[in-house]
Write a structure and sequence with these properties.
The structure holds 2 protein chains of 2 kinds.
Chain A: H1 6-43, H2 51-61, H3 75-108, H4 120-133, H5 143-163, E1 164-165, E2 168-169, H6 171-195, H7 198-209, H8 217-236, H9 238-244, H10 248-253, H11 258-280, H12 286-298, H13 302-326, H14 335-358
Antiparallel strand pairs in A: 1-2
Helix pairs in contact in A: 1-3, 1-13, 3-8, 3-11, 3-12, 3-13, 4-5, 4-6, 4-7, 4-11, 5-6, 5-11, 8-11, 9-13, 12-13
Chain B: E1 8-19, E2 22-33, E3 37-41, H1 48-56, E4 63-68, E5 71-72, H2 78-82, E6 85-88, H3 100-106, H4 120-130, H5 146-159, E7 164-168, H6 176-191, E8 195-199, H7 203-209, E9 212-217, E10 220-225, H8 227-230, H9 233-240, E11 244-249, E12 252-257
Parallel strand pairs in B: 3-8, 3-9, 6-7, 7-8
Antiparallel strand pairs in B: 1-2, 1-4, 4-5, 9-10, 11-12
Helix pairs in contact in B: 3-5, 4-5
């Protein structure tokens, strides 16, 4: 009781300064990392282009006569027609997936919610496969994205309705619901593979493995608005997601229209997931790994978590794609395989850590 | 604070509510007045928490209306409601590891982007002091004890600065010192003009801090009135299905169950 307010204001000022430093530092580091991986990613490949030439080429495109242009005769062409679409698509997909993970964890009030884990990515994949098999193109370039969006939306609502009870989702229920959803969508996907002709089958297989191979600017123009809309909408609901951590009832008591927030958040997650998987296929665990790492560094507040996750996701996926292209000479490994390879052990680590600190999830 | 002392800040008329085949509330009338502490008491399953939920707008009654001043409670959007009433729940939930200060800060959400947001820092500091959690400010909420979590939630409620305060068994997780302290703060709030409604199990506590006590039994109001009017041994013995004595000590009413074994057994 006998606490004066004087030290409070002092610590408050320090706290604000501290959080500002964390904020600037976090975004600074993530931004710098993104530039590094983008330049490195664009430079590596069959035609090697040094970093200074990549930068020079970008600056020239921006109308600045600074730096050297690629010296290789096909350098400029390789950069702008092959590498940049791929790197940009990787960055957008990574940002979208990580943001979707952060929002989903906020809405479910559960640290394990992730589009891949609970089957939303697979639901999107099923609908995309359907479009591929029946060779549908009702909205041109956007067809696969729209189908993936519908699949993602339906599965997210399904999981939400089945796994949520009394304002929170128990981890066990959520994971078990995910298993059930994944079983059903896998069955559907198998059926699509069975129905498909050889070309469609190959397309679906590569799609489910996840790959950025053959990325084109047209695809970037589809994913860009989806990712931008999703990330902006997520940032706008960040404050309310914080309040949702109190549970449905208490969140309503402090003025959150919980039902509306949920529906909006689920639509946003579906948009982001659809944008990410539309052309890159299923890339798991990005939405799990990135928000967790950011929370460890910057705490659980969504106003910082969401934009930082978007940046972090972009960094992670561009780096992962670079690794996928260069790990084995002349082979373009499926990126979904690599993220799962890293994400699986991370999942183990999360479980161990939760058991040590909080007696596990119940 | 809205309204002058004595006027009904929140009034419920003819409230009935069933969950499935179980009727929880039956034709309940109750008024929560500005400047007063109203205690809801009664045995387990009497419908106290459900009634509080109805008064807070969490539950929609099957019949009856709750009005907040001139308006019907169900017509108010969540944000506007949050500026009128705050609630301390029995059980505290928090999905992520926020710090205590951040949790208290959440109570300021209804005032975001209003003139009153200018006072956020001062209100938060004052609320934390009143709930005695200032020393916990930088601690992570999930690492606190049950009582400390309850006090943090109480600080969040105070930070919300609503003219109506609702507390659902606020003393359940608290030691004697903090029990008295929480009710003391609630009492002070009422004296400053707030309408306070609190669910309590401890009838002596209810007697000490309430202006009005409402006894609920099987979803119906059995008695409403001042502690002296309501805390009658016959009524309480019947409602609780256990013999109860009411003693007077230093001008305070003390309610104790009659214990057969305390006299050496039969």
């Amino acid at each position: 009781m006998a606490v004066t307010t004087a030290p409070q204001t002092g610590s408050l000022r320090e706290r604000i300064a501290g959080s500002l430093a964390t904020r600037v530092g976090l975004f600074g580091v993530l931004g710098a990392l993104l530039v590094v991986v983008v330049v490195a990613g664009a430079g590596q490949g069959a035609v090697n282009i040094p970093a200074n030439e990549v930068l020079g080429s970008i600056l020239h495109k921006l109308g600045l006569d600074i730096g050297t242009l690629p010296t290789h005769p096909r350098g400029e062409d390789a950069l702008w027609n092959v590498r940049f679409p791929r790197v940009v698509l990787a960055a957008l997909a990574g940002a979208a997936l990580a943001t979707a993970g952060a929002v989903m964890q906020g809405v479910f009030g559960n640290p394990l919610a992730e589009p891949g884990v609970i089957g939303v990515a697979n639901g999107a994949a099923l609908c995309a496969a359907f479009v591929i098999v029946f060779d549908l193109a009702f909205v041109g370039n956007w067809t696969i994205a729209v189908a993936a969006f519908i699949g993602g939306l339906v599965t997210t609502f399904l999981v939400y309705l089945m796994a949520r009870e009394n304002g929170r989702t128990e981890v066990v229920t959520l994971v078990l619901t995910g298993i059930a959803i994944n079983a059903m969508t896998s069955a559907g996907l198998s059926f699509m593979l069975f129905m498909a002709d050889t070309t469609a089958r190959e397309e679906i297989v590569f799609w489910t493995l996840g790959s950025l191979n053959g990325a084109r600017w047209e695809q970037v123009w589809v994913v860009l608005p989806l990712a931008a809309f999703g990330i902006a909408a997520s940032i706008l609901m960040a404050r309310q997601l914080d309040l949702l951590a109190l549970g449905d009832r208490a969140a309503r008591h402090v003025g959150v229209d919980v039902e509306r927030l949920r529906v909006r958040a689920i639509v946003v997650v579906a948009v982001l997931t659809a944008g990410a998987v539309a052309f890159c296929g299923v890339i798991a665990f990005v939405g799990l790994v990135v928000p967790h790492l950011i929370r460890l560094i910057a705490g659980p507040g969504h106003r910082l978590l969401i934009p930082a996750s978007a940046l972090g996701g972009a960094v992670l996926l561009v780096a992962a794609d670079l690794w996928a292209r260069t790990a084995i000479v002349n082979a373009d490994l499926p990126i979904g395989m690599l993220t799962s390879l890293v994400g699986g052990p991370f999942f183990f680590w999360l479980i161990r850590r939760a058991r040590k600190t909080a007696g596990g999830w119940a | 604070m809205s309204g002058t002392n004595g006027t009904a800040a929140l009034s419920a008329r003819g409230i009935s509510l069933s969950f499935g085949s179980a009727q929880i509330l039956r034709d309940v009338d109750v008024d929560v007045r500005a400047g007063e502490v109203l205690s809801l008491v009664g045995p387990n399953g009497a419908g106290k928490s459900t009634l509080l939920g109805v008064l807070a707008g969490d539950e929609t009654p099957d019949a009856g209306v709750v009005s907040l001043g001139e308006r019907s409670l169900s017509a108010l959007p969540a944000k506007e409601l949050a500026r009128e009433r705050g609630m301390l729940l029995q059980k505290q939930l928090l999905s992520f590891g926020f710090r205590v200060r951040e949790v208290v800060e959440m109570g300021r959400a209804p005032w975001h982007r209003t003139d009153r947001a200018d006072f956020d820092d001062a209100v938060i500091a004052e609320s934390m002091k009143r709930a005695d959690v200032t020393h916990l400010a930088e601690r992570y909420f999930p690492t606190l004890s049950g009582g400390e979590q309850a006090r943090t939630a109480f600080a969040r409620l105070l930070a919300q600065e609503t003219p109506i305060l609702m507390l659902d068994e606020p003393t359940a997780a608290l030691d004697i010192h903090h029990q008295e302290q929480v009710l003391e703060v609630a009492r002070d709030a009422a004296d400053a003009g707030a309408a306070v409604v609190v669910v309590l199990h401890d009838l002596s506590l209810a007697a000490a801090y309430s202006d009005q006590i409402c006894v609920l039994s099987r979803g119906q109001v059995r008695a409403v009135g001042t502690p002296a009017e309501v805390l009658q041994p016959e009524l309480l013995s019947e409602v609780y299905d256990h013999p109860v004595r009411v003693l007077e000590h230093d001008d305070q009413l003390i309610v104790v169950p009659v214990r057969r074994t305390a006299r050496g057994g039969k």
